[in-house]
Every structure is written in structure tokens, then in C-alpha cells.
């Protein structure tokens, strides 16, 4: 061993942070099972929603460009601070890239040290699906068993699996303007044991569905559902409208619906609510879970979960993954933090590493 290498100080335990790569995230999810993972993740999200007032909350910080958006999503409680970096670039698929990629960090509030660094492309798909299905527990018609999925891209299968794992929905009606996307989803979901119908239009997809999920990617004011496509008693899970200038539902549908949101200051800017006055009444989902507001009241009510994704859901997901690593050690130790012998002598550490 060369003399310099022999004297080079080795990183201390404090220098290392658990890092969950994409490969290890897949190992973790498969070790637990996708549907058990979704159920347990939903339980963490539910627990954090029940203590919603304890969190330091802010709308995500977004940097918009002609091609897409890059966002930071922070949230904190008294013990942990978490954030997610995420992009949304609808054109990416045409160029061989993912539309959405993400990573996140969970840190100790007590000393500011990160306690987890994780991929969040897969994890965001899982937490979005878990949140949708969790909301449907409070908002969907009792005994709903048919869901229409309009938009059959990367999120489609996760939504279906979450709704089955959490709500028992096993019958799916799928439609996408790209028939190849629907063929992909039919193939994957049939292999998972779903009863799947490949529909040739959005109108056909919603026939007989008690739950309608819209999950499209194009950054534009779109009308995926027109007013005449939504009958009484339906639960709408609108997850595609997640930035300014992007919607999926006709405005008249909103006027007939009871609207439930995660965080109004963010949803009014990014969600379907963009189409309505700033004072249009909405109900915060956490208050329904806490029992201080009503969710579904009767069989004729149209409920709309205007979901744009909020940082507390990512916080919950990171917290869940960190806990799972205690029994499923699918992570690497990343030498991320400088830890000099003397906290004041960072320069000395550099020189001794020559």
C-alpha cells in the first residue's frame, strides 16, 4: 500500500448516510411485496395527515421553463426535515427519458445531518398511488369495484395496485390516446390478476365506473372529462393537473363536485382549482381523516380529489423507507458528510488526505 494511502484518514461512521438507489428500492419493494408496501406506505401517510397541524408547510418551489418544471418540495416536523427534488417534462418520453424523475433527503432537525438519501422516481409513483387510494377510502362510493383509468403511462399500474390493495378494486377500464400505452398497461395488469377492459375512448372507459382516475402528462389546459361523462355518485381522482396551466376536467364538473385537496395554497395554483375563483370552497383531506369534516355523505354526491401531490406525502414516504431499512437492509453507505477530528479544522482534514 502506498504511504499516502496508508496515512489517509478513513471516513468515520458519522460521514456515512444510508443511500437507497433505484436498484435497492426495487429490491426493497419486491422483498416486502408491492401491495403490502402500498398498504404500509398509506398507513404512514394517514398517520402524518392525522397530525397535519404539527408540520411546517409551504407550497413547492417551482422553476418553470418552456420544456417543463423542476421543483423542490420541503416539509418538516419537530424531529425531521425532508425534501424532494422532482421534475416534470412531458416531452421527455419522445426523447427516451422519463417524464418524472426524483430523489429525496430526510434529515435530523436536531443536528441537520441527513439520515437518508433515496431515489424517489419509483417512490413517488408508489406514494402518489397510496395517497389516491387512501383518499378514496373516505371519498369513494361504498363497495366501488370498477375504476376507469384515463392515461395509461408510468403511473397507471401503481394506481391500480393501490386501489386493489387498499380498496379492493379489481375491475379496470383503461384508455389512453396512445394505444401502445394502453396495451402495455393491459399486459402488465392482466398479469397481476386484474379484470381489464381495453377501451377505445374516454367515454367508453367511464361507463359503469364508480371511480374515475385521470392521469395524463401534457402540460396544457385539457378537457379529458366533459361534464356529460360524469354522473352522480362518482368519485374523481384527478392526479394529472399538477402545475400551473395544466388541467384535465371541464370546469362544469368542478361546480357539481365536492372538492377535496391536500394543501389549498398549492392546489389553487396547480390543480383543477385553477379554473375557479380563489374563494371557491374546498375541504382539506386531512380534516376528513381527522373526523372534523365530512367526506362522502351519500350515494349521489360527486367527490373530487384534486390531487397535485404535497411534500408531507414525500416526508411520509421517506420516513417509511428509513424504517423499513431496519429489517430490509437494501441500501449502500454513502460517504456524504465531512467529519474532521476537530469540527473546526475542516482544512486540516483536507491537507491530511493528500
UniProtKB/TrEMBL annotation:
InterPro entries tied to this protein: NAD(P)-bd_dom_sf (IPR036291), ODC_Mu_crystall (IPR003462), ODC_N (IPR023401)
Domain of life from the UniProt record: Bacteria
Pfam families: OCD_Mu_crystall (PF02423)
NCBIfam families: PRK07589.1
The name this protein goes by in its record: Ornithine cyclodeaminase
Lineage: Bacteria, Pseudomonadati, Pseudomonadota, Alphaproteobacteria, Rhodobacterales
Amino acid at each position: 500500500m502506498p504511504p499516502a494511502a496508508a496515512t489517509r484518514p478513513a471516513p468515520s461512521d458519522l460521514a456515512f448516510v444510508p443511500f437507497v438507489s433505484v436498484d435497492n428500492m426495487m429490491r426493497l419493494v419486491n422483498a416486502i411485496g408491492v401491495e403490502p408496501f402500498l398498504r404500509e406506505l398509506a398507513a404512514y401517510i394517514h398517520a402524518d395527515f392525522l397530525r397535519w397541524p404539527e408540520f411546517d408547510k409551504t407550497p413547492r418551489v417551482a422553476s418553470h421553463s418552456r420544456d417543463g418544471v423542476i421543483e423542490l418540495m420541503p416539509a418538516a416536523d419537530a424531529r425531521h426535515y425532508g425534501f424532494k427534488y422532482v421534475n416534470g417534462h412531458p416531452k421527455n418520453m419522445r426523447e427516451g427519458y422519463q417524464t418524472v424523475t426524483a430523489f429525496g433527503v430526510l434529515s435530523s432537525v436536531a443536528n441537520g445531518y441527513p439520515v437518508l438519501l433515496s431515489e424517489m422516481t419509483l417512490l413517488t409513483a408508489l406514494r402518489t398511488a397510496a395517497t389516491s387510494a387512501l383518499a378514496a377510502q373516505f371519498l369513494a362510493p361504498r363497495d366501488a369495484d370498477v375504476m376507469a383509468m384515463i392515461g395509461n403511462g408510468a403511473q397507471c399500474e401503481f394506481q391500480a395496485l393501490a386501489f386493489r390493495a387498499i380498496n379492493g378494486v379489481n375491475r379496470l377500464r383503461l384508455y389512453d390516446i396512445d394505444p401502445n400505452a394502453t396495451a402495455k398497461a393491459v399486459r402488465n395488469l392482466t398479469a397481476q390478476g386484474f379484470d381489464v377492459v381495453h377501451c377505445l375512448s374516454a367515454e367508453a372507459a367511464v361507463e359503469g365506473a364508480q371511480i374515475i382516475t385521470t392521469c395524463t402528462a401534457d402540460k396544457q389546459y385539457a378537457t379529458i372529462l366533459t361534464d356529460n361523462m360524469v354522473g352522480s355518485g362518482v368519485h374523481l381522482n384527478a392526479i394529472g393537473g399538477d402545475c400551473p396551466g395544466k388541467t384535465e376536467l371541464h370546469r362544469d364538473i368542478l361546480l357539481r363536485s365536492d372538492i377535496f385537496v391536500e394543501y389549498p395554497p398549492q392546489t389553487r395554483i396547480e390543480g383543477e382549482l385553477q379554473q375557479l375563483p380563489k374563494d371557491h370552497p374546498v375541504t382539506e383531506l386531512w380534516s376528513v381523516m381527522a373526523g372534523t369534516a365530512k367526506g362522502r355523505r351519500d350515494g349521489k354526491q360527486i367527490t373530487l380529489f384534486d390531487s397535485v401531490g404535497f411534500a408531507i406525502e414525500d416526508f411520509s414516504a421517506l420516513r417509511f423507507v428509513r424504517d423499513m431499512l431496519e429489517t430490509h437492509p437494501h441500501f449502500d453507505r454513502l460517504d456524504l458528510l465531512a467529519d474532521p477530528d476537530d469540527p473546526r479544522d475542516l482544512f486540516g482534514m483536507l491537507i491530511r488526505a493528500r
